[in-house]
Write a structure and sequence with these properties.
By secondary structure, the protein is mainly alpha-helical. Helix content is 55%, strand content 8%.
Length: 188
């Protein structure tokens, strides 16, 4: 899935380690790996952007992520929530139990077998908390995004969506993979 751009290097900017990158990644060092940079930036953004408003409302970043996903969807199967949150099953399970104990989400099992399907939905209290927090979340997110120029924002958004699609297609082609680390490990 290669789509080499022929656009020239912007005037006055030095080349990056990715500018003349060949298919073999010759000369690419671990600090310039896309997975390293994305992990570093993602972790820093969670600490600088998300954690302050999650803390303000008495939530962990994981709790905020699940509450926001459920506020958007109203109700999701546990397996869908795991996938959409990009977290591992154990973290989602622990986090949902904490949210349930605070009356912010409802969990209900469907079926009569030991492995019944679990559905998660937001409660009125969870919806109210989300409604109070989301304007602050949007403002903090916008503040970080607006560090980039409009053309950088557009390019980054398109690039991230393209990379997400590349990964989706690759994962479908490989089938399920046993990886007990979830999304918490540094993937280099």
């Amino acid at each position: 899935m290669s789509d080499e751009s022929t656009s020239p290097q912007p005037a006055g900017l030095p080349p990056t380690p990715w500018t003349e990158l060949d298919e073999a990644g010759t000369g690419l060092t671990v600090d310039a790996f896309i997975t390293t940079l994305m992990s570093q930036v993602g972790n820093a953004l969670r600490r600088v952007v998300t954690l302050p408003y999650a803390d303000q409302f008495g939530l962990s970043v994981s709790e905020w992520r699940l509450l926001a996903l459920l506020a958007h969807a109203e109700s999701l199967a546990f397996s869908d929530l795991v996938q959409q949150s990009t977290s591992d099953k154990a973290l989602v399970s622990r986090t949902l139990k904490l949210l349930e104990s605070r009356g912010l989400v409802d969990l209900r099992g469907e079926g009569n077998t030991p492995r019944k399907k679990v559905f998660c939905s937001i409660t009125p209290a969870g919806r109210a908390l989300h409604a109070e927090a989301i304007p602050i979340a949007r403002q903090r997110q916008a503040e970080a995004i607006r560090v980039l120029s409009p053309s950088e924002r557009d390019a980054m958004y398109r690039a991230l969506v393209k990379l997400r699609e590349y990964c989706r297609v690759e994962e479908e082609g490989r089938g399920p993979r046993a990886d007990s680390r979830g999304s918490s490990g540094l993937d280099i």
